[in-house]
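sorry for the late reply, my laptop died twice this morning and i had to redo everyting from scratch. anyway the thing you sent over, i finally got around to it. pasting the sequence first so we're on the same page, its 53 residues, then the predicted structure underneath. double check i copied it right bc i was rushing
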Amino acid sequence: MKSFCMAILGQLAQSYPEIKNEIILVIEDLLEQGASPGIRSRAGKTLKALGKL
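ok and here's the structure:
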């Protein structure tokens, strides 16, 4: 479910760029909490799409 939400948040950030930085912070925080390999994969893809990586 978290990876689905990350994908949705990434799409929302493209439509509403003012929330981009907050979404990046939330994803980075999630990664620091010891995420599963699937979550790490989706987080990387979402961060890359947001221009963070």
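The mean pLDDT is 87.
thats about all i looked at so far, will dig more tmrw
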